[in-house]
Specification:
Two copies of one chain form a homodimer. Chain A has about 350 residues and is α/β, with parallel strands linked by helices. Chain A has helices at about 10-20, 25-30, 40-50, 55-65, 80-95, 110-120, 135-145, 170-180, 195-210, 225-235, 250-265, 300-315; strands at about 70-75, 100-105, 125-130, 150, 160-165, 185-190, 220, 245-250, 275, 295, 320-325, 325-330. Chain A has a six-stranded parallel beta sheet with strand order 2-1-3-4-5-11, with helices on both faces. Chain A has a four-stranded parallel beta sheet with strand order 7-6-8-9, sandwiched between helices. The longest helix of chain A has 16 residues, at about 300-315. The interface between A and B is large, with 44 and 44 residues. Chain A binds a DNA duplex (30 and 30 nucleotides) through helix 2 and helix 4.
Chain lengths: ~350, ~350
DNA sequence: TGGAGTTACGTTATCGTTATCTCAATCCTG
DNA sequence: CAGGATTGAGATAACGATAACGTAACTCCA
């Protein structure tokens, strides 16, 4: 026999009437501002409970110009790298009273710009952008009107945003150096999206290591940062496969996407080609041979970014930029030296 | 020499003053309501452009009691099953003018309840709940105040919500039947979260198929629906492994988590144990042996759910419930019959 | 006992938008 | 060219919550 819920949800005025006080008093009680008598307080709380009153977030936001919402923009939510970052960010945001609005850009700069505008409309109190794909000028313009911004893996505009960067350069350098020591000489690079700053960092790392040994890249091909990108690289690489004995991939997905086509073409990993990914997504440890990669503490990264963002929202721009080091994880696609 | 952006973002009144008209006229022009002269229209648009005016979503929502935001609640965003659903939902929501607020519950009913309340505060116009973990009563109470709800894989409360279900029962039945035909007799079930309705459906499918052959389950163990859950099942299973020659897993992650421990214990897949997962996440086709699984059109699922939700928001409750069939994908963990 | 200080509320105005009403100017149409 | 229809635009009043201010009643001590 329960009634249909009223079409209109109860407002503070409804509660006030039910409790026989003014809306202002209800507001005071519910926000613990004090200045309300014990008896009144009780009546208000009872009324609010009875009506299952929930303050209207819009009205509140309109009044104080704060949404208690923060955004996070990622290139592709289906890429396993990003959900972990989102989870980390959410883990910090929620206890701090913020709702996280996560937005998917599907690797499209236009979409990124659009999303940044949408977040502005929603008046988020701040936002995190992962691996921005916009060029510097458009990115700057898009973040300028925002109250607080943290960029992950994009060290542009330090004046207007905090930054957290993974030191891919050093990580990749170390891995390539080790591979050279293991006898690899002819390196290819599956470079990922051309617009990625992280991609350029990885390239610098490779080239630095190679240069120290008088070597240079044999292949350097852009591709989408997913399994299919790896498959496409494989297709283009196969005719001239003998030119390469080690592939460094922008991320694990690309590396994993490479493995099956190589195998089907009779090219052995790691005997013919050593393979290195980046990110250490869970799948990389499940395939055979297991994939050597650079591990990034993804959830930590998300947590750090959110903490930095909340600091900036609160006006405490304590740290402008953080650099975190990736960990090389040596697995079967890059065998140890014999002996 | 550009000025610092004003602390306060421009309002419709600012635009009105710049254009020398009333705010109402600006509103009309910007919303294409007509009733504005050509010359006026031009001036307003110019002024809005010049100030890079963006209407305040709060004020708008407060006025028309619509947020143009919909929520989607998932148990765990790190589980690769869900990002694809989210992407599908977003692909439909955005062109329709809706922002998608995706919320992560981390497999915790309390959190789920909390999130549903938060979405109520934010006055979402509707929401999709994936694999709700709340019991019927609490779920019903939590969704009652919402304007429109679609449940994925949870056929409770058809009166208050649209539902989309995967017919796991039939899918699992078909797979188990085939495995029996291939000679497997002793089945174990890694059942996933006890609160999952989908888990019960899978169990029904297994038991139906087994019953037709006078068989019954040897193992039926709950576990978390992730790699670690699989590893734990493996640990508990190992002492008595000989009792089982086929494992059906709640999802691919569990199955994949099982594989390495089994291998390390010298148990061969598929020779000693056939292995079946569910969902067909990308990793399942990358491991060796590749995992047999039930494929679910995850992105389609998300798209369908969002279309259904938008229908319900618009008051068109055309279809109450949809059932979609999973596709068995036969791979190496369940070898074909010899001959 | 009277004025200052305190407590417990209520009133008013405001955030930015827009539905509704109003009004003036312009347009036909017979 | 009178009178009704149409068009362009402004004024007003909400939406729900709350900051700022106002006020009545009470406390307290000289």
């Amino acid at each position: 026999m329960d009634m249909k819920p009223a079409l209109r949800s109860p407002t503070i005025t409804d509660v006030a009437e039910a409790a026989g006080v003014s809306p202002m008093t209800v507001s005071r009680v519910l926000n613990g501002r004090g200045g309300a008598g014990e008896e009144t307080r009780r009546r208000v709380l009872e009324a609010a409970q009875a009506l299952s009153y929930r303050p209207n977030a819009f009205a509140k936001s309109l009044k104080n110009d704060r949404s208690n919402t923060v955004g996070i923009v990622v290139p592709d939510i289906v890429n396993p790298f990003f959900p972990e970052i989102i989870r980390g960010a959410e883990l910090v945001a929620r206890p701090a009273g913020y709702t996280l609005l996560s937005c998917n850009v599907v690797e499209d700069p236009e979409r990124e710009e659009e999303v940044l505008g949408m977040l502005l409309d929603k008046r988020v109190d701040g936002l995190i952008i992962c691996s921005a794909r916009l060029d510097d000028e458009r990115l700057l313009r898009a973040i300028a009107p925002h109250r607080a911004v943290v960029l992950i893996n994009r060290a542009a505009a330090k004046r207007h945003a905090g930054t957290i960067e993974v030191d891919y350069r050093a990580g990749v350098d170390a891995v390539v150096t080790q591979l050279i020591a293991q006898g690899r000489r002819r390196f290819g690079f599956a470079a990922g999206p051309a617009a990625s700053q992280g991609g350029r960092k990885r390239r610098e790392g490779i080239e630095a290591a190679l240069a120290r040994h008088g070597l240079s890249l044999v292949f350097d091909l852009p591709c989408t940062p997913d399994l299919q990108g790896g498959a496409e690289i494989a297709a283009r690489l196969l005719p001239e496969i003998a030119q390469v004995d080690a592939m460094i991939c922008y991320n694990d997905l690309i590396a994993l996407g490479l493995m099956k086509p190589l195998e089907q073409a009779g090219i052995r990993v790691p005997e013919d080609i050593a393979l290195v990914g980046c990110d250490d997504i869970p799948a990389s440890d499940l395939v055979s041979p297991a994939l050597t990669t650079l591990r990034i503490a993804k959830q930590d990264l998300g947590e750090m970014a959110m903490r930095m963002l909340l600091d900036r929202i609160a006006g405490r721009n304590t740290q402008q930029g953080i650099v975190i080091e990736p960990d090389p994880i040596w697995r079967a696609t890059t065998p140890r030296l014999p002996g």
